[in-house]
Amino acid sequence: MPRTRLPEALDRVAAIARKYELSHGNVFHAGDGNLHPLLLFDSRDPRQVERVHEAGREIMEACVGLGGTISGEHGIGMEKSDAMRLICSEDDLHVQRQLREAFDPHALLNPGKILPPARRTDFQSVTEDGLEIRPTPDPPQREWADGGDLIPTDAAEACAMVARAVIDDVALLPLGAGTRSGCGIRSQHATTGLRSVGLCEVVEHDPPNQVIAVGAGTTLDSLQELLAEHGQWLPLRPPPGGNRTLGGIVATGACGAERLRYGAPRDLLLGLKFVSGAGRLISTGGRVVKNVAGYDLTRLLVGSAGTLGLITELTFRVASLPQCCTAVSATGSFPQCAAAAAKLLQTQLEPNLVVGAPDRPDLTAGDDDTWRLTVAFEGFAETVQYQLEHCETLLNEADLNVEDRNDYAVRRGPCAEWFDVLEQSPLLVQVDLPPDRVAGFASACGDLLYGAGVTVDFGCGRIRAAMADVPDAAWDRIGQEATAAGGHATAEKATEEFARRHDVFGPPRPDWPLMHRIKWALDPHHVFAPGRLPGGA
Predict the structure, then answer these.
(1) Residue of 34, 65, 39, 70 lying closest to 54 (CA atoms)
(2) 319 phi/psi in degrees, rounded to 5
């Protein structure tokens, strides 16, 4: 539950225990708002067993009423499965059942766990092909030939638009600001844009608990301005910048090198809402730090690129603004920079990012090229100063040329200029690898990663390279080398001509068929972004 509601929760637990004549104790992680009420009883007494079950149910109801959830740890199992209806609608539960079927179509793994039995009367077909949408007022008729994007102003309107598209057999492409609208889309699929930019309200802001819920069409910049008034921020700096919508950032899993310290969008999300392929509004997650009730659909939507639904609302855990943001740079050869980065990441220092880039855009990872290694620290001024001193000592010991420190704006970060250069390219290749294999890959494929620029994120294991084009043999080799190193290569941005020649998600991987099954389970009528999945599904 929210941390600030813990005193009320303790009072409610005590009152419920007294009501059922049970002794109790409490264990809790106050910093997380995670409460473990312990009800003491004699399991040999059937009447006490009955009372303790009734008391447990009331405690869960009380916690949900305080803005919490029914389980912060250890999952649901069987005893709490019926309580899932305290936090989930029948639509929510139906989608979770579909997801489980995608992983376990024969119901072999722990049947009867987590989800309560379906109430079949809640789902009635409204179309001849058995589309599972509960009866609602007929979605408004829509003329699809005008070519304009759909821009709902609230979640109900978005649901109606999706339901109409399903009935009319029209494919939709969920979009935010449209900065990554073309990635993965095959030209043979005609789609109508479904944009979230009209969903930009602040649903809830709880500064003491460091939680905010906003519409998916809210831009990152506008959110940061709001949070700054309370000394807070959302620690994300995704390229190409803060004009991206939060829904688009989450749908593409976009983040910068600060992921090393703060995490990616999936790590900052507490919950979200999205419109399903049946035109229903689905809620997943919540507004508390710990929540293990049901399947984690929240993180499933992160990086789904609009293939599973239109995200309408997002709830984030935010952070306090750092007092100090300072970076130090050092130059040397690529092997020197890579070795220094590896040593730095093995120390007890806590950098926000460790990124390398060539001093000139046309340089590669050759031994004689001059590269620049940038290391940044954020937090309290005294802590940052201490870490910078030890970092500079390490860089000097690596025979790098250490340059002056530079303070930077918290929202823009120290790598924004590099990212701005990369974004100008029509083709942007991204390679994700285990961090200890980044240097080896860059050296092996450095002759292929050239053009407008390249950055090597040593801390997170990500290489981004901007190029005008990649020859077929070169793209195949990049994908093969990435796979051999335990990672994968994708075309984060791609031209239509490149997408016609290649799968922008790189060479096939064993997990692709599972992705397709999840897509078919959650979007059986293929209303959302057909062709955007790996393999063109």
Answers:
(1) 39
(2) -125, 165
Residue with tokens 């209806």: 85
Domains of the chain (ranges, CATH numbers) = 3-68 (no CATH), 90-122 (no CATH), 324-501 (3.40.462.10)
Closest-CA residue to 191 (of 314, 313, 305): 305
Tokens 């075309």, residue? 491
User: Is the four-CA dihedral 214, 216, 219, 220 of positive or negative sign?
Assistant: positive
DSSP label at residue 193: E
Using 70 as the pLDDT threshold, list the residues of the chain that sit under it.
120-140, 142-147, 180-190, 360-368, 450-452, 536-537
Strands 211-215 and 310-317: antiparallel
Say if residues 214 and 223 touch (Cβ distance below 8 Å): yes
Question: CB–CB of 120/90 below 8 Å?
Answer: no
Spatial distance between the Cα atoms of 64 and 61, rounded to a whole number of angstroms: 5
E strand segments, 239-352: 269-275, 281-285, 310-317, 319-320, 324-332
Per residue in 251-281, pLDDT (tens digit) is 999 999 999 999 999 999 999 999 999 999 9
Tokens of 86: 């305290």
Which letter does DSSP use for residue 266 in this model?
Answer: H
Please count the residues of the chain: 537
- How far apart are alpha carbons 336 and 330 in whole angstroms? 10
Residue 301 near residue 308, CB atoms below 8 Å: yes
Q: How far apart are the first and last CA of the chain?
A: 40
How far, rounded to the nearest angstrom, does the alpha carbon of residue 325 sit from its chain's CA centroid?
Answer: 25
| Strand ranges of the sheet holding 488-493, from the earlier edge strand across to the other edge | 401-407, 324-332, 371-379, 353-358, 453-457, 462-467, 427-432, 488-493
Name the token pair of 331.
Answer: 């130059």
- Identify the pLDDT of residue 73: 86
User: What are 178-230's pLDDT values in tens digits?
Assistant: 776 655 544 455 688 999 999 999 999 999 999 999 999 999 999 999 999 99
Residue 83 amino acid letter: A
Q: In the 3-class helix/strand/coil scheme, how is 73-120 assigned residue by residue?
A: CCCCCCCCHHHHHHCCCHHHHHHHHHHHHHHCCCCCCCCCCCCCCCCH
Q: CA distances (Å), 129 to each of 97, 120, 125, in order?
A: 20, 17, 8
Q: Residue 125: its pLDDT value, please?
A: 41
